[in-house]
Amino acid sequence: MEERLWNHCENTLTPSSNVADKPLSLQTLASVSSLITNPSTSDPTIFAIFQTLTSSLQLSHDPLLLRHLLKLLSDLAVHRPHLSHLVFNSVRAHSLLSTDSTRLAAESLSVLASVAEHDRTLVSAMDELDGDLFVSLCFRPCVSVRSWLLSNADRFRVRPYLLLTVMLGFTKDPYPNVRRVALDGLVKLSKSIVCDDRGVIEGCYCRAVELLHDMEGCVRAAAIRAVSGWGQMLIVSNQDGDKTYWSDALFVQLCSMVRDMSMEVRVEAFEALGMVKMVSDDILLQTLSKKVLVILKEKKSLGHCTSKQFEISASSAAGAFVHGLEDEFYEVRRSACYSMRTFPILSDEFAGEALNLLMDMLNDDSMVVRLQALETMHHMATCDCLKVQETHMHMFLGTLVDSDTLIRSAARKILRVMKLPNLEMFKSYIDGLIKNLEIYPQDEVDVFSVLFNIGRNHGKFAACIVQEVSQEIDPRGEKLSFNSVKVAAWLVLAISASLSHDQHSCNIPPRIYSYAVTLLGRISRALSDVMNPNTLLTYLSLCSRSTSSSDTEFRKEESFLPVIKGDIPTYASIEMISYSGVPLRQISDAPSEIHSQKMWEPRELVETQFLEYQPELHDEVVTKYMKLIPANIEGVWPLIQSGCMVEVLRTFRSCKDELTTFTTDSHGSAGALAFMLQYIRVVKLLAKVWVHFLPERKVCSYGMGELHLLLGKLDRSLREMRYRFMGLSKEEELHVLELILLSCILRLSKVEVCCHHATLKKLSYYNFTCRISM
């Protein structure tokens, strides 16, 4: 079948048989293409196809046939790599590279570039092609070929400075599409080349500024991108002068384009504004006011270029963001909201004024704009620049009951990281979340999770609210149904207050935690990312038996948490939240009251005591070794990087043996020794993981499954370090968080390529926790 099909195609492809009145059929082309792409086609047939295509390429003069032949040869080189050199040499040696047909010459050059991209051994052969060929094709009359060559110039390995000259020259081409492509080429060059010649940088920048006034909107949009790229290079190249002045000049130049008549240009202008990293306060404030400020009336003109025709007044920035937020097109309003996220960190006054404008955008008709405004506010909150006032509350609380799910979710996302200044505002936001829950019951899991987060961040406020409503949280009461969403929300708030950074949980009546047990299923689903149901049940049972008067004695009880034995990570593994020095209520070992005896089988469970970390003052030997062991581990790191695992494991074993020889009666010193043993275990696991990231010549190959298991063990050991030991200093907590972040990054790099969302979420959480701790 294969031979018969090829014989038919060969007769059709032969130039002598392909007469003018019998054009090449699509069926023949499809048949040859199927033979090339079919992996079952025999090598003799493939080689016969290559010979026929090459012969036809040399003998045929039909432009249409030649284009099809080039496409088939390109496919042949891609699907049959062993023929790539033969195809490359055949096309390069053919006279098409010097033909009068510009389109065919460009397609030949494209085939050569495509073959070289798939076979990197041909890169040097591609370099041998003279850049003059590319330039000569660009100067031929065919406009479409010229545009295509300029937009794909990076494929042809043209010398950077030759390409820069060509791109700069074609910015004056009479055809707007060519000017646009040339400007985009300049943008690519600004990101890929290292240019120390300030004159060249200034020339490219000034040419882009000149084209900001082009008649065509697509050219002006490309000019904005070029102004942004080369303007940033001009700022960096200014070693001696004031970088703020040059950055202000770029910012104002971009602001002058936000009122352009083209919507595309306005969008590009705001996107470019968001890339400027340094702006003066007075110019920033001017963008929020249409009225020119007095200080800017006295300011001299700004400009990067030596020519005065490119100077621009600082007052050109007047009301830039206001105009963007009032634009008739939602794309412009969305872009303006997005670009505003860069600047609140530069100016507190700008942050306050910008927040007023963003709050107004929450009434926008477009859901996309409202969502972007909320995302910008979330970015401000993570940078600690969001100062919400009482005047904003009504507008913001309205988003919690918005009809769109994405809007409600974005608003709750802000509340997770928002810092509230007083109890009244805290109450208002809690009421808003409860109202959200009453109107949209499907949001329960996320609302409970947000309540837990803001309760932990504002423990004092949460405890006050729980105390106020404690009489209403009573199954015997007639005022409120015990199964109402309000009661469930208040119970979540009570749990969060007991685990907050503020020590106010002792004022919460223990019976509250007993009531929470009855809603364990609903609450545990919301807190699944921080603790599993078994841990939550044990903790609630513990807190329900404690009293404020016996709190000190209660902490001294010896107790343990059920933990799955072994190091393989499972969803049942305990992942407790951090209490940052506030001890999690120790969970007493009363299995008869909570679990059946079967749960406590020694083969399935191990003891996990919550230990005081700080050693006693008289344990000088313990303190000495606590300082010595990290120093030894630091010295071992070069061995880990070189893959010398035998020496590394021997060193870890020696450190562990030394620690196990200590005996102490001190509660704190015992915890310190346990912490150091756990630290050694973590670094040992990290070393085993690191081996998988070394070059293959240094280590033998390992399976992906083994790496996944090691990362699981490392994650679990790090969680135990973070949640088991009380009394860690801020530096020690930050060090543990850094190790957790490293573990997440290693997992993203190697394992969770297909399911990286969970790791990215965890990475974002721990990254934010690090910033809060600092």
Automatic annotation (TrEMBL):
It comes from the Eukaryota. GO terms for cellular component: endosome. GO terms for biological process: intercellular transport. This is Protein SIEL. It comes from Liquidambar formosana.
